[in-house]
UniProtKB/TrEMBL annotation:
Keyword terms of this UniProt record: Hydrolase, Metal-binding, Zinc
Molecular function GO labels: guanine deaminase activity; zinc ion binding
Enzyme Commission identifier(s): 3.5.4.3
Name listed for the protein in its UniProt record: Guanine deaminase
GO biological process assignments: guanine catabolic process
Lineage: Bacteria, Pseudomonadati, Pseudomonadota, Alphaproteobacteria, Hyphomicrobiales
Task of the protein: Catalyzes the hydrolytic deamination of guanine, producing xanthine and ammonia.
Length: 436
């Protein structure tokens, strides 16, 4: 058995914090100990207590004065868009047609997909992200590269071969039958292998014919335990075009509803411009809206009403994500910095406890995976991030004035990035050190 004892300042959430003063919503241990046995958290608490549970000679790593949190979770990003990031486009549809679709065509080549996969996981680890929910390209080769690399690094990843059969270049189209068959092959090859989860992934209604939507509906019926991911209500032109393509549907959300794609394992990227009716349906079905703040600002898509959706009488479940390459940073800290600013523009407050809850336990709840990831609870997997609030000279200077934990978290969120991540553990193994 491999055991390690980490020492540092532990932070883990029990539930969503109700306010900045809600100290019952989280565990904070100033001199904390975290015992890891065979990749799982065996104990977490005061260092002096946890130390007594460690066998004689257990390797000990002292991360003080840094914070040790559950690894960050990114609920929506595109693995084949690492070289799309920072593309100068006016809006979503121009960005897709001009930059994104041509780039994704390259992932038919295994060698290219494998090369990008290496960089993709390096970047996640560098930024403290230990689980991510990704779109591959339409090509099975891209899903193979994505899941093979996840297994090499023993990371808990969710991903799917994109299904798309219209309104894109020929090199990026499958057919209803191909999309169905290849998704089944990806499931057979990868789901449950290592820590991999396969998601059913119709890109969005614009790129799927009704016949392909029928095929995704069939997959959803056959594999009710799998996650489903797609895009919803991101941009006004997109919404208008989508509704023209599905004239019988009441609205954008109703298109997916008609094919049985709503539910507690369904993850909808963006969902910015939902009507009250759509938000009700999302809530009633337990569907998750994924906020992608850097992407929404970068593409000018709109301001996601996070707080308003969460406090509805029928609240909508929410996740947070980078949406690389529409998003502009791999960092979940930067992502929450932008999420904060969007709520400011909407006249709302997103407090730092809520932000850290969302990046960790909140996203794990949105994935229905809190039994495995997202907390420091004993028995869960030792995916961790170690954050240094004095990582840069400017941060160290500001830190001199910081008096409370929420203030320190806010500093990390506002000024932090990959430099702030002192270490990233995947199933108990320090991964960032290996990249330096
Ligand atoms: N809608 C359909 N495909 C995409 C994509 O790749 N990125 C974003 N942001 N929106 C989409
Ligand atoms: Fe996206």
């Amino acid at each position: 058995m491999t055991t390690t004892l980490l020492r540092g300042r532990l932070l883990s959430f029990h539930r969503a914090p109700l306010s900045l003063a809600d100290s019952q919503s989280y565990l904070y241990e100033e001199d904390g100990g975290l015992l890891i046995e065979d990749g799982l958290i065996a104990a977490a608490g005061p260092y002096a207590d946890v130390k007594t549970k460690a066998a004689e000679g257990t390797a000990e790593i002292d991360h003080r004065p840094h914070l040790i949190l559950p690894g960050l979770i990114d609920m929506h990003l595109h693995f084949p868009q690492m070289q799309v990031i920072a593309s100068y486009a006016a809006n979503l549809l121009e960005w897709l047609n001009t930059y994104t679709f041509p780039e994704e065509c390259r992932f038919v080549e295994s060698a290219h997909a494998e090369r990008i996969a290496t960089h993709f996981y390096d970047e996640l680890i560098r930024h403290g992200t230990t689980t991510a929910v990704a779109y591959c390209s339409v090509h099975k080769t891209s899903a193979d590269a994505f899941f093979a690399e996840a297994m090499k690094r023993n990371m808990r990843m969710v991903g799917g071969k994109v299904m798309m059969d219209r309104n894109a270049p020929q090199g990026l189209l499958d057919t209803p039958e191909m999309g169905y068959d290849e998704t089944r092959h990806v499931i057979a090859d990868w789901h449950g292998k290592g820590r991999n989860h396969v998601a059913i992934t119709p890109r969005f209604a614009i790129t799927s014919t009704p016949a392909q939507m029928e095929a995704t509906a069939a997959l959803a019926r056959e594999f009710p335990d799998l996650h489903i991911q797609t895009h919803l209500s991101e941009n006004h032109d997109e919404i208008k075009y989508t509704c023209e393509l599905y004239p019988d549907a009441i609205d954008y959300t109703d298109i997916y509803a008609r094919y049985g794609l709503l539910g507690p394992k369904s993850l909808f990227g963006h969902a910015i411009h939902l009507s009250e009716r759509e938000a009700d349906v999302m809530s009633e079905t337990g569907s998750v809206a994924i906020h992608c703040p850097t992407s929404n600002l970068f593409l000018g898509s709109g301001l996601f009403p996070l707080k308003a959706l969460a406090r509805r009488e029928k609240p909508v479940r929410i996740g947070v994500a980078t949406d690389i390459g529409g998003g502009s940073s791999y960092s979940m800290l930067k992502t929450m910095d932008e999420a904060y600013k969007i709520q400011q523009l909407l006249g709302e407050r997103l407090n730092p406890l809520e932000s850290y809850y969302l990046m960790t336990r909140g996203n794990a709840e949105a994935l229905s995976l809190t039994d495995r990831i997202g907390t420091l609870d004993p028995g869960t997997e030792a995916d961790l991030v170690v954050l240094d609030a004095a990582a840069t000279p400017a941060m160290a200077l500001k830190l001199e004035t910081v008096k409370t934990l929420p203030e320190e978290l806010f500093l990390l969120q506002t000024m932090g990035d990959d430099r702030t991540v002192a270490e990233t553990y995947v199933a108990g193994v320090a991964m960032k050190a290996g990249l330096r």
